[in-house]
TrEMBL record:
Pfam families: NAD_binding_8 (PF13450). It comes from the Bacteria. This is Phytoene desaturase family protein. It comes from Blastococcus deserti.
Length: 471
């Protein structure tokens, strides 16, 4: 039997392991932590009975992919749940905007910007299944749906500050700012629209669901399917070199690019090692989990129904904050992403006490404390929030990297989303999963299509390995 070793048990490592095991390989997964899951771990971080997601929380691109269609994760216990509103953006004075699954329902709440929202998101939503067939793969390929991808690509390559001119109202522009900020990039840079556009269209096509019981349910479902194939998972095993994985025919590395270069060592061609070590990481996340009695008292009504709330004020305010972060300066009023997963999945709460997920964008490796800034931003749009806090759990950028070494300096998206790395990640190559050593592949979120609990990086890398084995 052909043997494979997968180093790392994040969603991409587990997806790679499943893909190889289903093809008949004997698979062993080695995980340095005591628990599997990487960014899809969950637990009681504040008070007993409250389930918090450690990192990955809402999963718009994980619902319908080539990987999810290949394996019955639902049969293995994974259940998706949706909040009444996908995401919302509060503004001062109780104003704001919200996105629902329906493009029409969303547009109806945007007044003068209704037509512009329909024109951008309507056609893309109708064609999104075809578009994802192409953008969930490496960029260097012959497109299967060139016309649909062309329209999406034309918008994606624009600076967000330019595409935002489609909307004239503060509500419409803010709604676009919130999804754009997920890229951790200044809004005036080329292709800064890409991540936000993909997430916005995904909200209309698939929604932004939470996994019932916490994001750890994703890893548990994959582990159950792996057990059915006879695969093994070993925790508490740190791999520092290829010599430690034995004589495996295939080695999949669910690690950051520089870590892959360290593990492979002198066997890796020098030019590839240099490219992986030059891979650029982005800004960091400073995360605070709250136990909140009665939920967050948002003055904007739809924010009380949203699984995700983007907090930061107007388009211009968020653009300024993202620019400061990129320059290595901590903004006074950072962009804050708030997750209210309990609205989709009430099993995470204990009575009327709810787990609240929040992180601020901060400079890479920032050593300060953003707790006060996060609370101040939420309080601005939800007066009385502080009075409802019963407990907190703080994760700094350094603690985030300690939790998952792939999050270098607190970079939870495993790589800067600049224009070059959006197209060529982790390096310029026809097959970005190869590392120049026969049988060794990189499968982390540093590879296409990038961050998320969709497992597609691991799935694509494993298919590359299987194709080479077949040859």
């Amino acid at each position: 039997m052909t043997d494979a070793v997968v180093v790392g048990s994040g969603p991409n490592g587990l997806a790679a392991a499943l893909t190889l095991a289903a093809a008949g390989l004997g698979v062993t997964v080695l995980e340095a932590s005591d628990t599997i899951g990487g960014g899809t771990r969950s637990g009681e971080l504040t008070l007993p009975g409250l389930v918090h997601d450690h990192c990955s929380a809402l999963h718009p691109l994980a619902v319908d992919t080539p990987f999810s269609r290949s394996f019955d994760l639902g049969g293995a216990g994974l259940t998706w749940r949706w909040a009444p509103v996908e995401y919302a953006h509060p503004l001062d004075g109780g104003r704001g905007a919200a996105v629902r699954r329906s493009v029409e329902d969303t547009a109806a709440g945007l007044g003068e910007d209704a037509r512009a929202w329909r024109r951008v998101f309507g056609p893309l939503t109708e064609r999104f299944d075809a578009i994802t067939e192409d953008f969930l793969r490496p960029m260097l390929h012959v497109p299967r749906h060139p016309l649909a991808l062309g329209r999406f690509g034309a918008y994606s390559m624009l600076p967000a500050s330019l595409l935002a001119r489609r909307w004239s109202t503060p509500e419409g522009r803010a709604l676009f700012a919130g999804i754009t900020a997920h890229a951790f990039r200044p809004f005036d840079t080329p292709a800064s629209s890409a991540i936000g556009l993909a997430l916005g269209v995904a909200a209309h096509r698939y929604g932004w669901p939470a996994a019932e019981g916490g994001s750890a349910a994703i890893a548990r479902a994959m582990a159950e399917l792996l057990a059915g194939y006879g695969a093994k998972i070993e925790t508490g095993v740190t791999v520092r070199s290829l010599a430690e994985v034995g004589n495996a025919d295939v080695v999949m590395l669910d690690v950051a690019p520089a870590a892959a270069a360290d593990i492979v060592g002198d066997r890796m061609p020098a030019r590839i090692a240099r490219a992986l070590r030059r891979f650029r990481h982005g800004p960091a996340a400073f995360k605070v989990e709250f136990a909140v009695e009665g939920g967050v008292p948002w003055t904007h009504a739809d924010s009380r129904l949203a699984g995700t709330v983007h907090v930061g004020g107007s388009f211009e305010e968020i653009a300024d904050a993202e620019r400061e972060v990129r320059r290595g300066r901590m903004p006074e009023n950072p962009f804050v992403l708030v997750g209210q997963q309990y609205l989709a999945d009430p099993s995470r709460s204990a009575g009327d006490v709810h787990p609240l997920y929040a992180y601020a964008h901060v400079p890479a490796g920032w050593a300060g404390d953003a707790t006060e800034a996060i609370e101040r931003q939420i309080e601005r749009f939800a007066p009385g929030f502080r009075d409802r806090i019963l407990a907190r759990h703080v994760t700094s950028p350094a603690a985030m990297e300690a939790y998952n070494p792939n999050y270098v300096a607190g970079d939870i998206v495993t790589g800067a989303n600049d224009a070059l790395q959006l197209v060529f990640r982790p390096r310029v190559a026809l097959d970005p999963y190869t590392v120049g050593v026969d049988g060794v592949y990189l499968c982390s979120a540093a590879t296409p299509p990038g961050a998320g609990a969709h497992g597609m990086c691991g799935y694509n890398a494993a298919r590359s390995a299987l194709a080479r084995l077949a040859r």
